[in-house]
Design a protein that fits this description.
Layout: H1 11-16, H2 31-43, E1 50-53, H3 60-70, E2 78-82, H4 88-96, H5 113-116, E3 121-125, H6 132-144, E4 146-147, E5 156-157, E6 161-166, H7 170-175, H8 181-187, E7 190-193, H9 203-219, H10 227-235, H11 241-254, H12 258-269, H13 279-307, H14 312-318, H15 323-332
Helix pairs in contact: 2-3, 6-8, 9-11, 10-12, 11-12, 11-13, 14-15
Bound molecules: adenosine-5'-triphosphate and magnesium ion.
């Protein structure tokens, strides 16, 4: 798709229905993604363990969900466990459950995520973060699909497909003794390497248009992508991958001077430190919240004023602000009564 086509107003809607999470058409935008689609289709109905690798934000979760959605387990649960987000001392119980009294605070028996994933898929994200002890337990589960709860003696059978993901270099982790070689080979029956966005730039326009439609609908905006902006997006390095693109389009939609933001983004890339630092996104989100709040305030103010035919005293009562504050807000937001508007 050329950048020029993106000005077409109905284009985003045409794309909209195709990008349903788990839908295989998500992987049609680039030959390397189509190769991933082929793997997904060929393994979907097997119970093969799958290892998904790739930098942060490339779409590993989407691949995992697509495998589940394409498999005969699709009616069953899809359970995601982020192994980095749960303290390691709690992770064993989170994964495998515990019996009453297994440890201080275990007041009753609790099933683990493996039990919940029965007849479905369990997706173990950030697998490299598992301790060696938990890696050993997981290896046993993968061998015979049986495990015991923490503090339990009996073995439970589970019928689940295991998908693991990581953005770490497992070979280096193995060389350092931090990741078990036997688990690596057990997980790695099939491996999907999701390429970084900078290696599949052809996907950028389609993704940008999709995110634009999504955020326009979400924030009630009608922003469009100018061909120049699209050209900038195509040039950028995207070290935060699709997630970073998604955040950039969100800001573009929410901020009134969104186009300038894209310019700033590309200028940043040309500085001596080309890696766009992660804090930029965090900072950006705060700014989004502030701007979003301002925008919401402006919208609410305009709506109320219209409803009360610009009776400011009544508007200040409805909005629960003083008359003076209301006047300040009207002028801050640049609102004018209909009769004084110039066209
Ligand atoms: N092909 C795509 N179409 C639409 N959205 C996408 C696509 N690929 C990724 N995304 C979106 O980008 C964001 C990041 O994707 P995802 O969470 O799958 O990445 P990840 O590789 O799992 O990242 P991490 O390593 O940080 O867990 C999500 O919001 C996801 O919906
Ligand atoms: Mg993920």
């Amino acid at each position: 798709m050329s950048a020029g086509q993106l000005d077409s107003a109905d284009r985003p809607l045409a794309q909209k229905d195709r990008r349903i999470v788990g839908h295989l058409s998500l992987f049609d935008g680039h030959p390397r993604m189509r190769a991933i689609r082929t793997i997904i289709e060929s393994i979907a109905d097997t119970d093969t363990t799958l290892l998904i690798r790739g930098e942060s934000g490339v779409g590993k979760d989407l691949v995992a969900r697509a495998v589940h959605a394409a498999s005969s387990r699709r009616q069953g649960p899809f359970i995601k466990v982020n192994c980095a987000a749960i303290p390691q001392e709690l992770l064993e119980s989170e994964l495998f459950g515990h019996e009453k009294g297994a440890f201080t605070g275990a007041h009753r028996r609790k099933p683990g995520q493996f039990e919940y994933a029965n007849k479905g898929t369990i997706y173990l994200d950030e697998i490299a973060e598992l301790t060696l002890a938990l890696q050993a337990k997981l290896l046993h589960v993968l061998q015979d699909f049986r495990f015991s709860r923490v503090g339990g003696h009996g073995l439970l059978d589970v019928d689940t497909r295991v998908i693991a993901a990581t953005n770490r270099n497992l070979e280096e982790a193995m060389a350092r003794g931090e990741f078990r070689e036997d688990l690596y080979y057990r997980l790695n029956v099939v491996e999907i390497q999701v390429p970084p966005l900078r290696e599949r730039r052809e996907e950028i326009p389609g993704l940008a248009v999709w995110f634009l439609a999504k955020f326009n609908a979400q924030y009630g905006r009608q922003k469009q992508l100018l061909p120049e902006t699209m050209a900038r997006l195509m040039e950028y390095t995207w070290s935060g991958n699709v997630r970073e693109l998604e955040n950039v389009i969100r800001r573009l939609v929410v901020l009134t001077d969104g186009e300038q933001m894209v310019e700033a983004l590309v200028d940043r890339r040309r500085t001596a430190h080309p890696e766009p630092p992660r804090p930029m996104v965090v900072e950006g989100l705060r700014e989004i919240a502030r701007r979003g709040a301002r925008e919401a305030e402006r919208k609410a103010l305009a709506e109320v004023l219209q409803r009360v035919h610009w009776n400011r005293a009544e508007a200040s009562r409805i909005l629960k602000v003083s008359y003076k504050t209301l006047l300040n807000k009207i002028s801050e937001c640049g609102l004018t009564p209909p009769s004084r508007r110039t066209f």
